Fold this protein.
Amino acid sequence: MLEQTTITTPERILAAAGDIFGRDGFKAATIRRIADAANANVASINYHFRDKEGLYAAVLENLFNKGFSRFPADMGVEPEAPPEERLRAFIRGMFHRLLSSEGWGGLSGPGRLIAREFLEPTLSFEPIIEKYIKPHKDILISILTELLGDSPPPEILAPCALSVIGQCIYYALGAPVIRKMTEHSNPTEENLDRIAEFVWQFSLGGINRIKEIRPRSTTQIFSA
Amino acid sequence: MLEQTTITTPERILAAAGDIFGRDGFKAATIRRIADAANANVASINYHFRDKEGLYAAVLENLFNKGFSRFPADMGVEPEAPPEERLRAFIRGMFHRLLSSEGWGGLSGPGRLIAREFLEPTLSFEPIIEKYIKPHKDILISILTELLGDSPPPEILAPCALSVIGQCIYYALGAPVIRKMTEHSNPTEENLDRIAEFVWQFSLGGINRIKEIRPRSTTQIFSA
Amino acid sequence: MLEQTTITTPERILAAAGDIFGRDGFKAATIRRIADAANANVASINYHFRDKEGLYAAVLENLFNKGFSRFPADMGVEPEAPPEERLRAFIRGMFHRLLSSEGWGGLSGPGRLIAREFLEPTLSFEPIIEKYIKPHKDILISILTELLGDSPPPEILAPCALSVIGQCIYYALGAPVIRKMTEHSNPTEENLDRIAEFVWQFSLGGINRIKEIRPRSTTQIFSA
Amino acid sequence: MLEQTTITTPERILAAAGDIFGRDGFKAATIRRIADAANANVASINYHFRDKEGLYAAVLENLFNKGFSRFPADMGVEPEAPPEERLRAFIRGMFHRLLSSEGWGGLSGPGRLIAREFLEPTLSFEPIIEKYIKPHKDILISILTELLGDSPPPEILAPCALSVIGQCIYYALGAPVIRKMTEHSNPTEENLDRIAEFVWQFSLGGINRIKEIRPRSTTQIFSA
DNA sequence: AATGAATGAGCCTTCATTCAT
DNA sequence: GATGAATGAAGGCTCATTCAT
């Protein structure tokens, strides 16, 4: 009661919606549960966000906005730092953004919401892609360009980027099942940096191998 | 009409359900649309599969069953073959199983359905994990054990496995967004083997690096 | 399996239907449950009895037929016996017919089915009234005529009959609630005759009082 | 339209539900018909009463509540009045509560609803028993205790109470069939008091007879 | 700014019945 | 004589949205 006087109704709704959309997905989540969790009226959601979809778009924007301001893509590493270090920062940033539980009910709250958008992007995701994801991807591309050297063609750059991102995202999206199959490497708040470190090393190895085999096999393998 | 005389109603329902569940997810999919697509009555779904959930479970079982019989985990490569070759087969198998469009309306039908289960596993997924996924994971573990050599501990094996699988799954799950961000490396039926080849090389590089750095840094990085 | 070879399918259905209709009522009972309980096919019910309603009519007829042949209205007492004794037999007969559990899953199986018909008589009950209930009522009327003496008018006979029957039926219909409110006087197989005895005495007292007060108050009280 | 402006939607629903539940029973009644009869939306029933079952429970509570406030158990007769007069009031009260048609579409609306609960008590009836029926029964028991004198044991009190109540309830429950078999003694609004008067006299006679025969036959007849 | 009441559309399921075999 | 498959109708319930206040 006390702290709710300083937090506005829309803010409470936004927080509850992030939680519930993340857990249940857009369709399965109901605005009634969100309203209840936010201690607000059902109609107030439509009042403040026009639509269930409008609320969802607001949640998404809020999520990426806070995520990138808390964990910037470079994680504080200078652009002049060696590309290996910048890759390390990039991967650490992704893991923290996807799996940090700050402000979320449980681990991987934001991760699951984002993973869902990768599966079936809603219209609300389009502006997010333009505003956050593409610039973020470009940073990775520039890091990889330096690492691969010799001005690598997109046919090599793109799969490399996807392999790096794929490992990161998989930890966010696969958490529930991973938890059921192995006790090790489960993404928890504590070992988050340790896992990021592993993915970094693995990726460095992968990138180097791609760089090495390029001269003799690129054309056969990657040419469109 | 002509080919429907030889295909039983349950089969038609199963095919339509796989398609629609894959596109819309369990909750958003409606049995009415499935029945319409299968040219069957709504009640016939309950008759043959008891439940919407029963139908979903049948789709899942059918999916993995057909997937693994069409593309076995070893893809025809002998168990005595060098581990590099078996890893290559393993990765190729995964890609084909996840992204092959045979019998599906659009590309990545099965992949999205499975990816969804990774996000929020339903009760129907539990038996699938036991029957298909765990054994499949064990095969990968045995391959990695050989590649890493020196009887690697689970703290190394597990993340390696996840990094390999993560890359494969990401292509299935991220397809819609990837398509929007880059023209290259989009998973299509034609370049499926080419992408598998890339992931194989990348993973070999990653695994080797992990193997190399193990002696001097294992304890700091991976110890629980 | 062994005894089912001598019992025909319609007979098995009839038995199961009596049980389930009695427990659940016409509407709530489903032919599927009946078919299952009878170890028969759902369609066989429609085959043998045309309708759910047809089955119900058959159950009703069967019920009264067996009931009255096992426990005749006079219960073996001669028509020349004193009316007190014949009333006693009449009441005992009703209790046994309504509450005997022979051939029924639980106590008061037939009673509840009949009580239900009193509440909302179906079309199937019409012939039962003509064939069984009216003749049965006429027997009671003739007993009461003798007991009341002086050729009593219908305005006195009818309520007397209803008061006697009311007590009997109430034990059948009210059993579930009675059981919740008192440990005594619950209609069980064992005390069935004891309860009948009580109702007999109570009714004799009631009838005598009506007989006594008739001369001076009949016209005011009962005239239509 | 005119009088509906002052009657709230829940009230209209409640009235219609009492009518239809009484006529068709819980299972056969449909909320759609109730909503139509109440000139309300189907969903409004779920909104105001949560459930079909919730609505039913509300109807039941409303029924007993209004019934006992309009026709109290003592019907205005003082507790110090002779037990004969109090029995008369008790019986008159029951008849009016069960058969009064005020606020009901047809005669015996409430009676049939209650009779149904005696046949197959729903969960919603449990609180009603505790709140209304048990206290009501206790009043009858105290009247009978005085009438029988000599501190009668429960083995005598209980059946006496059941015989009195049985006659009352039977008129409510048996109305449809009674109507088909005799033109006399049909419970209509007009002769309601006349019938109550008869049942009162009949019961007094019955109770007296039980009282008289007690000394010499109690043990044989009623002992458990 | 915010809410309680009410609504219409749609969903899953059940059920009695029919039909071809 | 009997059955498995299939169907159309209907029922209870949920949900996002709107409206008057």
Residues 30-32, 42-43, 45-46, 51-52 of chain C lie near DNA strand E (CB under 10 Å from a C1'). The mean pLDDT of chain C is 86.
